[in-house]
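Onboarding guide, step 5: your first structure request.
Type a short instruction followed by the sequence, for example:

Predict the 3D structure of this protein.
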Amino acid sequence: MDIYDVIIVGAGPAGLMAAREFTRSNLKYLIVDSKSRIGYPLRCGEVTREDTFLELFEHTDYPFITNKISRFSFHVNNVQRSIKQNFLMLDKPQFLEWLSKPVKDHINLDTRFETLIRKDGVLEIITNKGCLQTKLAVIASGTHYKLQKELGLIKKDVELVPCIGGLFKNRTLAPDTARFYYDEENFVASWVFPKGGDVINAGAGIILNNNKTDKRNLKDVFKKLMKEFKIPFEGEPSFGGSYVTSGPIDKTYGDHILFCGDSAGQVFAGVGEGIYFSLKAGQIAGKTTIEAVKGDNYSSQFLQRYERSWKKSFGQQMDAGILFATGLFFLMRHRLMCTALRIVNPKEIQNLWLKGEVSLRLKLLSLFLKSLGYSAKR
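The system replies with structure tokens like these:
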């Protein structure tokens, strides 16, 4: 049986970005994904920061960029706060198709990862189509954590916010503003992102576990919330999914294995933003893989450099995301969102979310919540 240098599980942003690093090397690699088509089905809000996109891809003159956003607004009842920041709306399936072009000959679709077995210094990747052998595996397969738990890489519970969403018709909203809406009664947060033209990407997530809202009635709660905020739209939710609110897993590497993107919990926990962090983690995983193959060293001690690198790059923002989520859960649980939004300094939100900078006031709030036993637990 042929032995690959690396097998990537998942052809999403993290997996494809890792693979693109290999185009400048002579690695023998393969990407496997359970989907039958790259980028489908759509399961996210499709928004990413302009500055970090430019860091990775140099310009924004791409056909898969459908709109440019300059403002985010937060709404609770009749209270609103806004921050100014440039974001990009993607056609994510088209973006992933573009991302996959340099590596498309190395992708096996309709190939579902089932488990892996360590054997004679290599990994056996078991799929629905048979067994593959590799020296190193990069796992970028989304919000599935069974393997990470089996490998002892997760000590705390992984908290996931269940969501529904889709693409809808809307002809009234300003195209430069993305919005978050919070429903304290039903513990639901909704997003409305203008995608360009008369299309919006919109949906809702259950922020806190409760006996009022669950997956069965989330669509109705979402529609009711949109009606209360006078957001007219045409269409129905077309996807379900989830995002991580508990932060990165305890350890994102092990012998012969790396985890990146959603599989590593690399999401800004407070709002579910993940595209940039997946892309950057994938890039770092790809560079680490090349070093490992070059040195023929796949030990946990060597691969730890991957975790050190991504923490140096965006670890501060991951920590800020956990603080954001902890505060959000506390405020929602105690019906304090309106009060908080009235007194909050929008610059504090902007710096926390977009720079990972925590003001003295927010540091004191964090210490207070910790003293009460609160954490990013739903």
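Each response can be followed by summary notes, for example: The chain has ten helices and 16 strands.
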